[in-house]
Design a protein that fits this description.
66% helix, mainly alpha, DNA-binding, homodimer, 9 helices, Tetracycline Repressor, domain 2, 212 residues
Chain lengths: 212, 212
DNA sequence: GTCTATATTTGGATAGAC
DNA sequence: GTCTATCCAAATATAGAC
């Protein structure tokens, strides 16, 4: 019933796909609560009642969109990691993953940005139905950061799970303040990476500088 | 009409205050969409219609709560900064501000956590009415980070505004994954500070280490 | 100040014609 | 597959009694 991602659903079922596309765009820009089935139907060129031929409920539409969004980010990040040479350092890998995640979010994909936007707005039942897919993606990051930690590339004071939570949330939050029209994604990707890998401070912290 | 913060409203008007307290608690735990005026009234020990003697609309209640939440965080952070010795470094100041922000969020204050939780859920009109207060708080951070940058304490490649957006969002996002019952706020405050100030990587980045 | 009762609107969902 | 028509529930908001 509920598709895991778009690749498994091919191109058949084109009106179902059109409905999802329209709904994703509306959810992305108006949020979950402000998007009604009538809105989605109008955007799709049909009437509200007709949606029920393709979907059993609004929840089913939303869950599909949430799942597709995460699957696309997951695929993009996994491909980027796999494309690296075997000699790549953990730092290189983390950098590549950060870049890929940001690309997936910002390169005009309604599904990925709708996911981040509405995840905190949907009813708990919907979130629960979507959680497994989301956890699978976080597992990819968890493995990467844990491996880096065990290899001694992260400070011993760092908890990989904490870094994971902190990093993923702030990457997602970039949707709220970064406008790709005003600069390339590469720019914030580089800043994110530098910040996470080396921090924002220029010098050794032992050198104390007075305020103002 | 709409109060800026709680201090200006004193203790008078105790039922208005009780309504706000109950609403903040409900918004914090159930979110904006799932909290009705009936819920708020029931929690406050009255009927839905009676709320309109104290408030003109649901929006007015929500805006008050959003404003109070930010004002409390702002006060906490400003106090923490002011309490530092004049010899404090920028790094010290940033650390203190991070700690204060996290304390304000996690120490059982329904207003501050409701703010973070529902800000992305409220109608645009409500967000707009609240924006000025929020911007005033961000200005405090902006001044701090810009000063640190101009003093040469941040890497030249760092954009203070970008660090600001990134840092504040991830501090707020900690509400979604950190449970103060399982560990002191100090712990994540230290990790956040270390991450932002020095990064997560243990060694100089020039030393390349192979993966797996 | 708070109540009861109700107006009004909106949105998810269903039934049956075509 | 899509339409029209409609049901039903929930929520904001108002009016007037007490």
């Amino acid at each position: 019933m509920t598709e895991i991602d778009d690749t498994s659903a091919r191109e058949e079922n084109s009106s179902r796909r059109r409905i999802l596309d329209c709904a994703a765009r509306l959810f992305r820009h108006k949020g979950y609560g402000a998007t009604s089935l009538r809105d989605i139907a109008a955007e799709s060129g049909m009437k509200a009642g007709s949606l029920y031929y393709h979907f059993a409920s609004k929840d089913e539409i939303v869950i599909d969109i949430l799942n597709i969004g995460v699957a696309r980010v997951h695929d993009t990040v996994r491909s980027a990691i796999d494309a690296l040479a075997k000699t790549a350092t953990y730092a290189d890998t983390i950098r590549a993953a950060i870049h890929a995640h940001l690309r997936a979010l910002h390169e005009a994909d309604d599904y990925t940005s709708a996911n981040v936007r509405i995840f905190g707005q949907v009813p708990e039942t919907v979130r629960d139905a979507h959680l497994a897919i989301r956890r699978a993606y976080e597992e990819t990051w968890s493995k990467l950061l844990t491996a880096a930690f065990e290899a001694g590339e992260l400070r011993p004071t760092m908890d990989p799970q904490l870094v994971l939570a902190l990093l993923l949330r702030s990457l997602n939050a970039s949707l709220e303040w970064f406008d790709p029209k005003k600069g390339p994604v590469e720019r914030i990707a580089a800043t994110f990476s530098e910040l996470v890998l080396r921090g924002a401070v220029d010098e050794a912290p032992a050198v104390a500088k007075r305020r103002a």
